[in-house]
Design a protein that fits this description.
Mean pLDDT: 76
Shape: flat
Number of strands: 2
Strand order of the largest sheet: 1-2
Distance between the termini: 21 Å
Low-confidence stretches: none
Number of helices: 5
Strand content: under 5%
Helix content: 25-40%
Radius of gyration: 19 Å
């Protein structure tokens, strides 16, 4: 019973608050979000944790082992352990791949299962490189620089490369 359709009638869509912002403030807000994203990716311990988009959190991988899964948060547990008809779900989340990100709709599916150790290392290094670049932008007072100039640079190049190889992270 989840409606994820998009409204095509612009009159029914309320205006975004960010559009009313001063352009420099808006650009700074977007840069700050990007900086936080790349910082998260560069320092996150993928070997010990599972990203759970449905709860907006991450959990330890060991929480998904069959003998301890009952300790998962209650809002996650009922959907992870049981099918819609109430029967016990036999499929479990495979936590053996280097990156584990639960599918929002099927909590037993790892949408990042194709990322191997080499690709994870590249993802982390490119994220760190982009983070350092964005930190330089902030520290040099260029946070309100022209967005088009900034995004014709290293940031957009790295985002583009990451989106090709790791579309999961940009959902």
């Amino acid at each position: 019973n989840l409606d994820i359709s998009l409204c095509l009638d612009k009159k029914q869509v309320p205006p975004s608050k960010i559009l009313g912002m001063n352009e420099g403030v808006r650009d700074l807000a977007v840069l700050s979000i990007l900086k936080d994203f790349f910082e998260f990716i560069s320092i996150f311990d993928f070997s010990e944790n599972v990203i759970c988009p449905s709860t907006g959190t991450f959990l330890e991988r060991k929480s998904f082992r069959p003998k301890v899964e009952q300790k998962l948060p209650s809002e996650l547990l009922k959907y992870y352990r049981f099918n819609a008809d109430g029967s016990l779900r036999s499929k479990k989340l495979n936590t053996l791949s280097p990156v584990v990100i639960q599918d929002v709709f099927d909590l037993t599916d790892n949408i990042a299962r194709a990322i191997d150790e080499t690709e994870l290392a590249l993802l982390k290094s490119k994220s760190l490189e982009t983070l350092k670049f964005l930190e330089d932008v902030f520290s040099e007072g260029k946070g309100n620089c022209d967005f088009r100039v900034l995004f014709s640079s290293k940031v957009v190049f790295n985002i583009f490369k990451l989106s090709i190889y790791y579309p999961t992270f940009l959902l």
